[in-house]
Write a sequence for this structure.
């Protein structure tokens, strides 16, 4: 196992890692997965994960590992696919992405409450955490659950996420 | 409306339509992407909302590289627009929302 995967794991948030039983092998799998799906894009989600580390990096890792585990449960082995094949498989199994969005933001909901004592609805956090409404729409149009959107608290949620990322002090 | 396709090169050297930028009548450009773009696609749209970038200058937001290339803008008008975009979404593997419980049970 590469030392950099071990070092990255040490920089992430242990409660989240334990809850999702994430191992060094999972970290290695996520790096490989992202290198396939984002081949040629220049910037990468992997680099964001590494740069943020901490609880926010952990939320990115949770999204990826949940997505990969669900794809495998559906008989798709993502590390054996080409970029072109995988993007079509991801569209066919969009539920893996939607549940990954949900788990990512469920974790963010819990960690924001635990660290800062603030609580936001999952839908509010998705809106605050993405640069557009694509993931929010996919989530709301699925039947994962019934959700409340706190439109008046989206800016507050953005500030809390910025604090979690270490972009602001309070 | 005007559209620019973004093509990506696969491991085997084949170029394929992977995403597109769509410019509305007011000049606002929105980036349409598949799930391989993940958070990056949303960040591009955040950037496009914050700064007006003409369709012809999308290279400023997503630079061309050995593995990415922008095609020339195409002008698409009604009544062909919906059919054109549906085909482009299919080519770019852009997913539609779908009930999760039903899919997992299938």
């Amino acid at each position: 196992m590469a030392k950099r995967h071990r070092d990255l794991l040490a920089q992430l948030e242990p409660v989240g890692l334990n809850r999702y039983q994430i191992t060094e092998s999972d970290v290695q799998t996520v790096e490989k997965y992202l290198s396939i799906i984002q081949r040629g894009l220049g910037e990468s989600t992997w680099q964001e994960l590494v740069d943020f580390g901490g609880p926010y990096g952990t939320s990115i890792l949770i999204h990826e590992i949940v997505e990969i585990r669900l794809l495998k449960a559906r008989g798709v082995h993502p590390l054996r696919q080409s970029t072109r094949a995988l993007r079509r498989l991801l569209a066919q199994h969009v539920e893996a992405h939607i549940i990954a969005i949900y788990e990512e933001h469920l974790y963010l909901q819990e960690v924001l409450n635990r660290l800062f004592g603030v609580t936001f609805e999952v839908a509010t956090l998705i809106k605050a955490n993405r640069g557009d409404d694509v993931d929010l729409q996919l989530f709301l149009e699925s039947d994962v659950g019934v959700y409340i959107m706190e439109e008046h608290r989206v800016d507050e949620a953005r500030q809390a996420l910025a604090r979690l990322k270490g972009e602001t002090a309070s | 409306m005007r559209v620019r396709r973004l093509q990506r090169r696969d491991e085997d050297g084949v170029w394929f339509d992977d995403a597109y930028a769509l410019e509305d009548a007011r000049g606002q450009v929105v980036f349409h992407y598949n799930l391989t773009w993940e958070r990056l696609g949303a960040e591009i749209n955040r950037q496009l909302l914050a700064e007006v970038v003409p369709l012809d200058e999308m290279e400023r937001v997503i630079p061309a590289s050995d593995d990415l290339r922008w095609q020339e803008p195409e002008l698409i008008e009604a009544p062909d627009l919906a059919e054109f975009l549906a085909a482009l979404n299919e080519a770019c593997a852009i997913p539609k929302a779908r009930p999760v419980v039903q899919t997992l049970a299938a």
The interface with chain A takes residues 8-12, 14, 16, 18, 33-47, 49, 62-63, 65-68, 93-104 of chain B (CB under 8 Å).
